[in-house]
Design goal:
Length: about 375
């Protein structure tokens, strides 16, 4: 397979982006926006507390605002960003996938997964994806556009509100974890993703107040952006979608490898681990007869041990095949042997819990169907 052309920048131009929302603004920008509306500056803090603290995105329901200004504030700072097209659930209601439509008609997805000890939301950072990994439904659809900071944050606010209010199956709960593993390559929308992460982890009224250690940012391996992220002063988990240990195969499975080799990606991951003190997660989608050979398990363990030492964990992912795809998940015995060999090589390795196969939970499937 010929290498796919890739963008030369991490942050694509602002094309077709939605109107500015409160969640796009930092504290100084919020105050300036409120003053521009002819309101006293203290209203900026009130609005932020409503959105981030009370999870309220409808200005008409913000009762600490004078009724006479709610419509004006709503139009200026709380435009409707995402409207749910459908919710589909499975796993006894523990998994709910939402298809969203943005104001320009763009479709994107998020997945809420409830576990006995946590609730995790998988969010999108782009509509589509430009990385062109052939086994990924989103990658095959191409990139439509970047999501705005507020479009990213509002996926989280909405899920947190639904859990708090008990409108999802299983009753009331609390959102505890966020993973940037939905549609898109997060580090290709760098500025907005970092801004969104800061909104997600900052305490109210600056943000939603999740623990940094409960937020995971994934990447297929944009090595310079990994290093840049390491210097942001954040301690979120970095997940690198490696998917194979040899450059020859990875050039095909993850075309960005033609720009940054495995060695360069792992070197950047080591810099991230050393800078933040956080263990790096290596994502590895196990594909039948493609990357599941025992010798690849051995090579994976050898390279990770050398590059990252104890600061690494392999998250093995049984492939969620898409309709009509030539790719399929590896048989269970093959998966178990792969795990055994990685562990024997001195690297921590577990298999990710599979969720949502009957509701097209692989990223991009639901949007493609619609």
């Amino acid at each position: 397979m010929a290498p796919t052309a890739l963008p030369l920048v991490f942050d694509a131009p602002r094309r077709g982006m939605p109107a500015t929302h409160l969640a796009d603004l930092d504290a100084d920008q919020r105050r300036a926006a409120v003053v521009e509306l002819g309101l006293p500056a203290f209203r900026a803090d009130q609005l932020a507390r409503q959105y981030y603290g009370r999870l309220q995105a409808d200005a008409e329901k913000m009762t600490d605002l004078p009724a006479s200004v709610r419509e004006k504030v709503g139009a200026a700072l709380f435009p409707t960003l995402l409207s749910p097209v459908k919710h589909v659930a499975c796993d006894g209601g523990d998994t709910r996938k939402t298809l969203w439509r943005a104001g320009d008609g763009t479709l994107l997805e998020s997945v809420l997964m409830r576990y006995p000890d946590r609730a995790t939301l998988c969010i999108s950072s782009q509509a589509g994806c430009g990385m062109a990994c052939p086994f990924c439904a989103t990658g095959q659809g191409g990139l439509q556009r970047n999501l705005s900071t507020a479009e990213i944050v509002d996926q989280v606010r909405s899920a947190a509100a639904d859990l708090r209010d008990g409108v999802v199956e299983g009753g009331e709960g609390r959102l505890s974890n966020v993973v940037f593993m939905g549609m898109g390559e997060p580090l290709a929308n760098y500025k907005r993703v970092v801004a969104a992460v800061k909104r997600i982890v900052s305490p109210a009224p600056e943000g939603l107040g999740l623990s940094q250690r409960s937020v995971t940012v994934s990447t297929v391996g944009l090595a310079p952006a990994i290093r840049k992220l390491a210097d942001e002063g954040l301690t979120v988990t970095l997940a690198v979608s490696l998917h194979c240990p040899d450059d020859e195969l990875r050039d095909t499975l993850v075309p960005v490898n033609n720009r940054w080799s495995i060695a360069e990606v792992l070197d950047a991951a080591r810099y991230y681990a050393d800078t933040t003190g956080r263990r790096v997660s290596i994502e590895y989608a196990l594909i039948r007869d493609v990357n599941d050979q025992p010798w690849r398990a051995d090579l994976l363990a050898k390279k990770l041990k050398k590059a990252l030492g104890a600061l690494v964990h392999v998250n093995l992912i049984p492939l969620n095949p898409t309709p009509g795809s030539e790719w399929d998940a590896s048989p269970k015995p093959v998966e178990e042997e792969f795990v055994r060999r990685v562990r024997a090589g001195g690297v921590s390795c577990t298999v990710r819990d599979t969720r949502g196969q009957e509701i097209a939970a692989a990223c991009g499937q639901l949007a493609a169907e619609n």
